[in-house]
């Protein structure tokens, strides 16, 4: 492996993961608090820094300085491992998301894998271990119940999540996320097929399964990231704090950050699959070919476009959280297995039928 | 507890259990094993210090045992050691979400013992107090209920409205929370200037806000799933357990002391008693919402017909005279001295007075042997009685339903534990 590739990859990892995603996590926490405050006729944190923007920093310092208390009744090894197991997979999935076209002749994706979505699901499914271990190793009843709930919830909704994108993969005939994005830049976003080949009878017909997929995907995403209305593993008013009841200080912060990181990656994946990733609508400023060279300004605009879409998605996550009540555990499982699973399966068949009829 | 050698050898409890001597754990032991979950006394959903000992089979509750008394302060015993008026601040701390209503109920009970009749303006002011307290308490009950099932925003919406009521309380009594507004034989002060305008403005603003809150919940599919057919209390059971207030009416029993046994001139006002159909959590939510609307209706009628005149019992031998005359005239000074040092001279006898408070029938049973202090004072706390149905209600429900049921029963532990 030549050193240039290594250096470029390393730079991308450091910049994208540590300088962009992690601060974005902090920003999301801030946005969550400010937006929820706006929804609830409150002011929200506005004391630390301009508009309270430094509040996440203050929170972070607080987390670091608090006593890292380990209760005597826990299984120490697993107890220590669990927070890392939720945080690391969330960040690892960053690797395959194309967050821009090209910049300085480098493609703006850390690993241009040919199995992008599969990699994301494979890694994301590891998060469940973190939660299960946290619930089990805490050796306490509330975390245990939270852990049990989350196991079944996350495994069930992973299936829906996987099935919901099968129609898209069938339409694009492609598992490489960069190629999927370029395809959308040329022929219309999956959720906005208004130009290129998308603006045709085929595109209009295919919009139906894509829209169904989108609804299932987003709902399952909520369940995967344990956000309200699916935050049963935490479930503040029932399980106190769910699986992380026994955690304090930085270990709790890792769970907390992991949840938000998962939310950002989920938004990134949804944007990539359904809203054309970094591309601008109507094929504006698109490169001539896949990974084609673009100017610095265009490249920067593409990156900005990606993050703007992600932020819009995050805001959607936040608004939903502060509007809806919480499902009950059995209702959630019924929704997952009886409705979404079947609809997703039928959706795959529907897509296949449409593709077969049109071609 | 002393540390045993076993505990030192096996530091975590999980690996210790199978190591106990003579204990061979087999898989058969685990089949049918129940999980005993200690919910409370400090738990986000138990609204204070209720402790529920839940026995669960998986997530299904098989046995529920409420353990109350963590907030017991011995209010009833305290009452035996002080004059009637001195007990008023303690009533603030019964239902601390509606202190004005508890103040009124207590004052009415003592006045019943003394056989006093308040002048019309005094009664009208007390009605205002009761209905404001009802709105305030139901708002909190509704908000906490919604928050328990996950809708946090509703809680803050209701608190915005409660804030307005607190402002009104502050204007009226000088205190936002612990009002101590009533005295035996009247109120501590008349309505302040501008109070009626502010109250009617609140009524105008409150109804749209309540509608907005309802739009978040009333037809929300998730909320309906969480509350419909959950915690169903049948009519017969509600009566058998002695439920009162919105919990009783939610089960379809149209019993409201303001109608059934009018006090404070409630018979003059036109209002309806909302009742539920199925007696489930959703019905109790609806009943509370409608009761707030009826309270607004009553407040508007009171404001329209608010009579002029004295607010207190006029006889200075019974009711403490006002401060100016105490400082200026000899007669009043003597009355004041006697009343403050010896207390109101109550006749011997026993009396029970129940008022329709936000949580249900708050009753005061006073046994007097004459003199300034009660011989025995018993408080019938509606929250305490309402909670007694939990062991019957919870088994068979899922653990998540507990919070919906607790939220819909809307209890307050200050009153329950007394």
Roughly what fraction of the amino acids of chain A lie in strands?
Answer: under 5%
As for the number of domains of chain A, it is 1
Largest beta sheet of chain B, briefly? 3 strands, antiparallel
**Assembly type:** heterodimer
Give the low-pLDDT segments of chain A. Answer: none
Features:
A: about 350 residues, mainly alpha, two-stranded antiparallel sheet, about 0% strand, B: about 425 residues, 3-stranded antiparallel β-sheet, 8 strands
Topology:
The complex is a heterodimer of chains A (359) and B (418).
Chain A: H1 3-39, H2 55-65, H3 76-92, E1 102-103, E2 106-107, H4 116-124, H5 127-137, H6 141-172, H7 177-187, H8 201-224, H9 236-239, H10 249-274, H11 296-321, H12 329-358
Helix pairs in contact in A: 1-10, 1-11, 2-10, 3-5, 3-10, 5-6, 6-8, 6-12, 8-10, 8-12, 10-11
Chain B: H1 5-9, H2 13-16, H3 27-30, E1 35-39, E2 51-57, E3 60-67, H4 75-79, H5 88-92, H6 99-114, H7 120-148, H8 152-173, E4 182-183, E5 186-187, H9 195-217, H10 221-227, H11 235-240, H12 246-250, H13 257-260, H14 281-305, H15 323-328, H16 330-342, E6 349-357, E7 360-368, E8 376-380, H17 382-387, H18 390-393, H19 399-409, H20 413-417
Antiparallel strand pairs in B: 1-2, 2-3, 4-5, 6-7, 7-8
Description:
The complex is a heterodimer of chains A (359) and B (418). Chain A has 359 residues and is mainly α. Chain A is built from twelve helices and two strands, in the order αααββααααααααα. In chain A, strands 1-2 form a two-stranded antiparallel ribbon. In chain B, a hairpin with a 2-residue loop joins strand 4 and strand 5 (186-187). Chain B has 418 residues and is mostly helical. The interface between A and B is medium-sized, with 33 and 36 residues.
In short:
The complex is a heterodimer of chains A (359) and B (418). Chain A is mainly alpha-helical.
